[in-house]
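Why should sequence recovery work at all? Because a backbone constrains its sequence more than one might expect. Tight turns favour small or flexible residues, buried strands favour hydrophobic ones, and helices have their own preferences. The token representation captures these environments compactly. In the example below, the structure is given first.
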């Protein structure tokens, strides 16, 4: 019933309302087509009227041709011409023929007669009384200069000239004219005059009731006959604004289509014009139809169809609305009858949902264990220095990798199996909780003997065994941390301490137990403080440059120095060692900014205070900065900016860093050497770089690590190592520098070995630029 009600109200009823306008439009279009049919029918009727008129006038044209045939054979005799005209007019037997004339060219009748023009006319239409007049050697009527005469003389072939309507004291008429020939030339014209008022009666025999106006015109748009189906009052009112003779039948004028159209538009009509012309182009007929009145006529004729359509549609829509309301009421009654059951079901669902929400508020939905919120609520607050409980923190560290090839449902199943194994292993008095992600907490009720360490060891052994998941054996990698409740003041501190035991541990520390220590926490706290201070905008302003001389071993003269950086942190109010902040800068990406700052400070020094000295400076470059895509180009730009020669700055990289970076590192190194830069390998002998790679690259310097220089004595093992490294350097074409020289004995032993350059605290500690400029080794 609901579907039926919705079908009626949502589909059927809107569909009917949508179909109603197209249906009404279709009926209206039928009447529009009917109007088009009536227009075509009236157009054909008007064409037939013109054809009848054309047939009527063709007889007068034939009369004209007959008269020409007779006149062309007449001798130059007046009485013969009178008899011929009388015979022609009598034989015409037409009430429309007013008169016939023969009009000669000057001296064409005879050589002495300048003009000769006999004209015969009926005194009354269809009477036997005729009157002949002449234009004979007098100036009373100079017909040679009349327009009708010139038009007739210009006619050629079968063309007939038709003059515009002419008004005299008796009649309004038009003239047919055509030239006649004698002796091979035009001798004059023959005219036949037609009375227009009598033609009007002939025009009235046709039914023009469907037209607003009908106009018969000549080829020059002169109105011959007109019929306007408009009342005299409308014509009179319209003519008050100016004379519009084209609308009246008693006077003739020019046919102006725009003027007549404006008149019918002023009468609220929508005129449509149909026009035709005779085959010889002499006459045209124009009819004005009112499409609006024709359309209203069609609507009145088909009024029953419209009324029936509206009634049927109203009835159909009303029935559908009644049916829809009836079914809607029936549906409402059913709803009321089932409301109590629905409310009962709703109450049951809400109770179940509340129980579910209460469960999820303190339990994990996947493993079924209590969640971290339950730990905070159900456990007692830690008591500093006197709480015997321990918190074991377990983190599954390879779940992200497992999720790459296991479905999400299997990951949840792994967590369930892990939780079951955890419950099976732990004693009953131990509380289990699941934290965020893949972390778990075990609160051990220790008896004071081991503070939960034995339980943590047992859990570690259990989780080393693979888990069977269907046909797969899955091995979980875990990190376990152990924290004592007595070391914390609150749950937040306790949880933070447990996280710190396993966070940022290296991969070799997996599958072992990490005990919380204050030193570890302090180290992490200090790293956080350093990272925060390093991210401040003025970090580079706190950097301090120092320089440690590189000394020629035999002359004890400084030939260069190594640029070192110190951080005097205002936030921490202390001087930070590079060994502490450089690794952190490489980790958080600040090393790029720090490295370019050091390079620019060195270039300022070389182009400023040390510009006149034969002195170079080595700069330590991080592999991260070294691998920048535009590093060589940016370095070129800085050297060009400070006008420093490439031989005065050396880029120093550690051997261990060079061995660990990607292949593109060596490509950049090759490009820098090709551009003329000097490269040095620091801590040489301690890394894992390929000798084949080092051998085929032109490194300028190799720096022997302090671990080989320390304790070097004559005949000692370290001296032999230094001698071997020196030979390797000579083979590679690189100068060898010994770092970390701290005693006179080490200096003498290195000199005996053949080392030419040394660097260390024995000769000079790192000093500021001012102290370097005054240093005795620079003299």
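From this structural description, the recovered sequence reads:
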């Amino acid at each position: 019933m609901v579907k039926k009600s919705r079908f009626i109200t949502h589909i059927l009823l809107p569909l009917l309302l949508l179909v109603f306008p197209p249906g009404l439009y279709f009926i209206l279009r039928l009447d529009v087509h009917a109007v088009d049919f009536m227009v075509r029918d009236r157009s054909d009727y008007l064409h037939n009227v013109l054809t009848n008129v054309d047939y009527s006038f063709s007889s007068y044209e034939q009369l004209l041709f007959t008269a020409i045939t007779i006149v062309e054979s007449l001798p130059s005799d007046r009485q013969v011409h009178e008899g011929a005209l009388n015979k022609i007019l009598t034989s015409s037997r037409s009430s429309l023929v007013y008169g016939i004339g023969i009009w000669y060219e000057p001296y064409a009748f005879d050589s002495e007669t300048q003009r000769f023009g006999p004209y015969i006319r009926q005194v009354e239409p269809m009477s036997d009384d005729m009157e002949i007049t002449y234009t004979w050697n007098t100036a009373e009527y100079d017909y040679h200069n009349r327009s009708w005469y010139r038009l007739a003389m210009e006619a050629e072939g079968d063309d007939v000239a038709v003059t515009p309507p002419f008004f005299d004291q008796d009649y309004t008429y038009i003239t047919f004219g055509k030239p006649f020939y004698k002796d091979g030339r035009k001798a004059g014209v023959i005219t036949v005059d037609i009375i227009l008022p009598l033609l009007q009666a002939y025009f009235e025999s046709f039914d023009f009731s469907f037209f607003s106006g009908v106009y018969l015109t000549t080829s020059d748009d002169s109105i011959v006959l007109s019929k306007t189906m408009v009342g005299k009052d409308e014509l009179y009112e319209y003519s008050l604004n100016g004379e519009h003779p084209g609308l009246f039948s008693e006077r003739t004028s020019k046919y102006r289509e725009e003027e007549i159209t404006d008149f019918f538009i002023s009468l609220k009509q929508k005129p449509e014009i149909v026009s035709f012309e005779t085959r010889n182009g002499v006459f045209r007929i124009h009819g004005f139809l009112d499409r609006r009145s024709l359309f209203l006529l069609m609507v009145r004729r088909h009024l029953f169809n419209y009324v029936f359509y509206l009634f049927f549609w109203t009835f159909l829509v009303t029935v559908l609305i009644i049916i829809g309301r009836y079914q809607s009421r029936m549906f409402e009654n059913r709803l009321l009858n089932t409301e109590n059951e629905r409310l009962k079901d709703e109450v049951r669902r809400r109770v179940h949902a509340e129980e579910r929400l209460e469960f999820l508020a303190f339990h994990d939905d996947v493993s079924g264990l209590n969640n971290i919120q339950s730990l905070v609520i159900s456990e007692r607050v830690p008591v500093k220095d006197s709480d015997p409980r321990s918190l074991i923190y377990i983190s599954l560290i390879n779940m992200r990798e497992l999720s790459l090839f296991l479905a999400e449902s299997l990951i949840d199943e792994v967590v369930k199996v892990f939780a079951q194994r955890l419950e099976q292993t732990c004693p009953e008095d131990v509380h289990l909780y699941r934290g965020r992600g893949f972390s778990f907490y075990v609160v051990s009720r220790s008896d004071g003997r081991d503070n939960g360490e034995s339980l943590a060891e047992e859990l570690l052994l259990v989780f080393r065994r693979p888990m069977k998941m269907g046909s797969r054996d899955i091995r979980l990698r875990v990190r376990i941390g152990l924290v004592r409740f007595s070391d914390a003041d609150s749950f937040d501190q306790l949880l933070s301490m447990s996280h710190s035991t396993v966070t940022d541990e290296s991969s070799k520390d997996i599958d072992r137990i990490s005990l919380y220590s204050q030193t570890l926490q302090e180290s992490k706290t200090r790293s956080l403080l350093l990272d925060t201070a390093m991210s401040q905008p003025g970090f580079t302003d706190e950097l301090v440059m120092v320089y440690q001389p590189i000394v020629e071993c035999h002359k004890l003269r400084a030939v260069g120095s190594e640029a070192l950086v110190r951080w005097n942190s205002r936030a921490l109010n202390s001087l930070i060692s590079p060994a502490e902040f450089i690794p952190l800068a490489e980790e958080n990406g600040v090393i790029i900014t720090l490295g370019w700052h050091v390079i620019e400070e060195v270039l300022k020094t070389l182009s400023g205070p040390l510009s006149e000295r034969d002195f170079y400076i080595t700069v330590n470059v991080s592999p991260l900065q070294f691998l920048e895509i535009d590093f060589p180009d940016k370095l070129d730009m800085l050297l060009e900016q400070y006008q420093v020669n490439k031989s005065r700055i050396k880029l120093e990289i550690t051997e261990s860093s060079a061995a660990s970076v990607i292949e593109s590192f060596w490509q950049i190194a090759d490009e820098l050497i090709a551009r003329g830069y000097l490269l040095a390998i620091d801590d040489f002998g301690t890394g894992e770089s390929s000798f084949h790679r080092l051998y085929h690259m032109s490194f300028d310097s190799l720096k022997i690590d302090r671990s080989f220089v320390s304790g070097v004595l004559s005949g000692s093992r370290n001296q032999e190592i230094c001698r071997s490294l020196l030979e390797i350097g000579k083979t590679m074409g690189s100068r060898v520098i010994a770092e970390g020289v701290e005693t006179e004995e080490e200096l003498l032993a290195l000199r005996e070995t053949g080392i030419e350059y040394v660097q260390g605290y024995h000769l000079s500690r790192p000093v500021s630029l001012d102290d370097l400029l005054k240093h005795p080794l620079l003299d």
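A few observations help interpret the result. The first strand starts at residue 97 and ends at 104.
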